[in-house]
Amino acid sequence: MTAPILSIRALSAVSELGDAQPILRNVSLDLAAGETLGLVGESGAGKSTIAKALLGVLPRTVRITRGQILFEGRDLRTLPRRETRAIFGDAIALVPQDPMTALNPGRRIEAQLTDGLRLRRGMNAREAHKRALELLAEVHFADPERVLRSYPHQLSGGMRQRVLIAAAFALEPKIIVADEPTTALDVTVQKQILRLIRIMQEAHGTAVIFVTHDLGVVAQICDRVTLLFAGAVIESGPTSDMLSAPRHAYTRALIAAGPRYDRPDAGLKPVPEALVAELRLEVAGGGR
Amino acid sequence: MTEVSASSFLATSAPNLAVRRLRALLAEPKVTIGGGFIVALIVIALFAPWIAPKNPLDQDLMLASLPPAGLGGAEPSYYLGTDDLGRDVLSRLIYGARIALIVAFVAASLAALAGTALGLLAGWYRGWVDGLISRLVDIWMAFPPVLLSILLVAVLGAGVGSVIAAIAIIDWTRFCRVVRAETMAQAQADYVTAAHAIGFPPFHILVREILPNIVPALLALVSLEMGIAVIVEAILSFVGLSVSSDTPTWGGMIAEGRQFIHQTWWVFAAPLAALFATVLAFNQLGDGLRRALDPVLRR
Amino acid sequence: MIALAVLRRLLVALATLAGVAIVVFVLLRVVPGDPVAMMISPGASAADIAALRAHYGLDGSLLSQFVVWLRYALRGDFGTSISLHRDVLSLLGERLPATLELATAALEFAVIVGGAVAIVGAMAGRTWLESVIDAADGLLLAIPDFVWALALVLAFGVVWPLLPLTGRVDPSVGAGMSTPFYFAESLLRLRFDVFFDLLKHLAMPTLALGLPLAAVIARVLKGALNEAMAQDYVLLARLKGMSEFRLVMQEALRNAIGPTLALTGVQFTFLIGGTVIIERIFAYPGIGNMAIEAVINRDLPLIQGLVLVFAVIFILINIAVDLLVALFNPKLRYA
Prior knowledge:
Low-confidence stretches of chain C: none
Largest interface: B-C, 40 and 50 residues
Distance between the termini of chain B: 28 Å
Number of strands of chain C: 0
Number of strands of chain B: 0
Oligomer: heterotrimer
Helix content of chain B: over 70%
Helix content of chain C: over 70%
Mean pLDDT of chain B: 83
CATH architecture of the largest domain in chain C: Orthogonal Bundle
Distance between the termini of chain C: 9 Å
CATH topology of the largest domain in chain C: MetI-like fold
Order of helices and strands of chain C: HHHHHHHHHHHHHH
Largest sheet of chain B: none
CATH superfamily of the largest domain in chain C: MetI-like
Shape of chain B: elongated
C-alpha cells in the first residue's frame, strides 16, 4: 500500500485556559490519497481541533504538546511559514460548516470565488472568470453567470454550500477538510450535497476528511472511520466493518442509539451513563 | 402589608439582590474613582463657607492679577492666584462648584423624570401615543441643543432656575428614547405577561414591574446627563446668560479669564481643569455603573 | 424601492420642519422684552412704534403672524433682521459657507483619524496597542467639544502660541475674496497664501469639533470591524492567503461601515450643533456665532431663519446617512 498522504502521529494538545484541560490525547490517524475518512465524535470530542490543526488555524487558546502532522511526509508543525503558506488553504482546503456565515455578504460571488485563483495561481480577471464558470458548472449550477453576479443573500443555503464546495476544489487541493458541511442544511438538501462531494472527490482524486457527529452521513460517503471521544481515538477502521461489527462498547452503543426508522415504536436508546463514565476514566488514564 | 409584584416571585428576594448589586458596584474601579471624586466635590461644595480661604466676592485691586502660589510675585494665601479684580481664584472655584452641582443634580433628575414618564408611556401603549411622542422627540432633536438652551434661557430670563429648566426641557429626549426602547423590550418578557394575566393595571406594571428593571440603565444615563448639565451650565455662563455676574460660576470664570488669557492664564486654566475633572468623573461613574449593574441584572 | 423610501423620508422631514418652525415661532413670541422697544429712539410716537411693529410683522394675533410669516417664507423672504438691518436670507447666505467649511473640515478630520485608528486597532486585535487605543478613546469620548476648544485655546494660545485664536482669515490676506466660499475659491484661484491662512485659522476649531467625533468613529468602527473579523468568511479569506491589512480593508470594512454610519450621522448632527459655541469661542464668522448674537439681541426674524437652517441641515444629514447605509448594504439594494 502506498504511503498515506496525511499521517497524524501521537498528536496531543491542551487548553491554554485555566486548568490546562487536555483537548487531544495521543491521536493517530492515516489518510490515503483519494480516500474519504470520517472523523466522528460527539461535541467536544476533539474533531474540530484536529480540523483546525490541519488548516493551520488553531486558536491561541490551544497548544499542541507533542506529536506530528505529516503531510506528504513533511511535518507541518516544523515547516517554516514560507512553505506552510502553500499548504494551508491551498493543498489542504476547507469546506466550512455554515454557508450563511462563510460567504461575505458584502461581496459578489465572483469576487469571492476568484480570490484564491488570482492570489495563489496568478490568474488575471478574465482567466479567473472562465475558471469560476467551469467550477460552478461542475457543482451543477444551470446558470453560472447569474450566480457569479449574485450576492450571497440572493442564493439559497444549498446553493451557497455548492459555491463553497466549488471554491474548495478551485485550487485542486490534495486534501479537503469538510467541517460538518451539511449540519446547517435541510435534510433534503443534505443528501444532494453529500453526493456532490463524493462526485467531486472522485473526479479530482482528492482525499477528504469528513468531520461529523452523524453516523448516518458516515455510512453514506466515508470509506474509513475514526471515532473520537474526549480527545482520544476509540476505534478506527473501514466503514462497513465498523458499522456492522463494532469492536468497542462505545461504538456499539452509538450505533444502537441511532433512531430506527423501520421500528418507530422501538424508542431511543441513549449511550448508557455508566459506559461514558468508564470511558472517561479509561481515556484519562492514557487511552489507546 | 407590602404590595406583591410578579417580578419578585421570579427573582431572588429583594435584600440579597440589593446587597449583591452594591458589592458589584463598589468593585468596579470606575465607580469608586468617579463616584469618589463627585462625593468629594459635593462635600467641598456643601462646606464651601468653611473650606474656602477667602470670600469669593471680595475685590482688592491692590492684589489683582497675582499668579498661583509658587510662581514669582504670588501671595502665599492666594493658592491659585487672583483675577483682574483681585478676587481669590480658589475660593471662587469652590463656590462655583455649588452652582455646577446644583444644576447637575436637579436638571438631570427633572430630565430623567420627564423622559422616563414619556418613554414608559410610548413604549407601553405604542400606537398613536408612541407616534405622537416619537414625533415630538424628532422635532426636539432637530434643534441644535446649545442654541435651544441659549434660546430658552433668553426666553425664561437669566438665573439658575432657567438654566435648570432649559436643560431639563432639552434633554428629556435622551431618557425618553432609551426608556422607550427598554420598555418595548421588557414588555415582551414573561414576567410582564404574567403580571398582565394576574390582572395588574398598566400603571402598576409600568411602575412596579418594568421600571425597577430599567433603573440600572437609567442610573448610568443620569450620571452621564449630570456631566452634560455641568457643561451646558458652563456654556451658558460663558456666554453670560446664567446666574448674575456676582455669583462665581466656572463658565463665567472661564469667560473672564479668556479676556486676559495671555496675562493671567490661571484664571482661565483653574476652572477649565475643574470642569474637565468633573465631567470626566461623571462620565466614568456612568460608565462604571452601566458595567457593574448590567451583568447583575442578567444573572 | 429606494425612491419610495426617500420620498417617505422627505415627507417626514417636511413635517418635522413645520413642527420646528411652529415651536420656534411660539417660543419667540413668549419672549419677555420687546425687541421693537429696544430699537426705537426716545420720543417716538405711538404711530411710529406701530409702524415699526408692522414692518417686522410683530402685530396681530399669533396665528395671523405665523400665516404671514409662512407666506413670505415660502417665497424665500424671511424678513429683515432687527439687529443687523439686513435681509435675513442674504445674511444667512453670507455666513453659512463658513460654518459648512468648518463642519466638513471637522468631518474629514474625524473620518480620517477615527477611521485610521479603528483600522489599526482592528489589525492589532487584543494586544497592548488595542488597550492603549481603547483607553485614549474613552478619555476623548468623555470630554465634549466645548472643553476641548478651551483646552486648545490654552495650549496653542498661551503655552505654544503657534496658531491664531480668532477669526476665519487674516483681513489683510483674505481681502480679495469675492464669494463666501473662501476655501474652494482660494484653491480654484490658486491663492495659496489665502488657503494656508484659512487652514491656520481653521485648525483649532476643526480639532475641537472633530476630536469627539473621531473618538466615536474610532470606537464604533473598531467594534464593528472586530465583529466582522470574527466571522467565518474572514477565516476562509485568511486561508486564501490574504494579509491582515487586506482582510480588514477588503473583507471586513464593507460590512462594518453600515452600523458605524448610523451612529456617526447622529454624532455629526451634534457636531453641527456644537458649531454654535465653538464659533463663539474662536470668534469664527459662521451662523453659529451669529445665532448667539441674534438670541442676545432678541432678533426674532434672524433667530427663526437660523433655527430653520439648522433644522434643514440636520434633516439632510439624516437622509444622507440613510442613503449611505443602503449603499453599503446589498441586502437593502437587492431585496
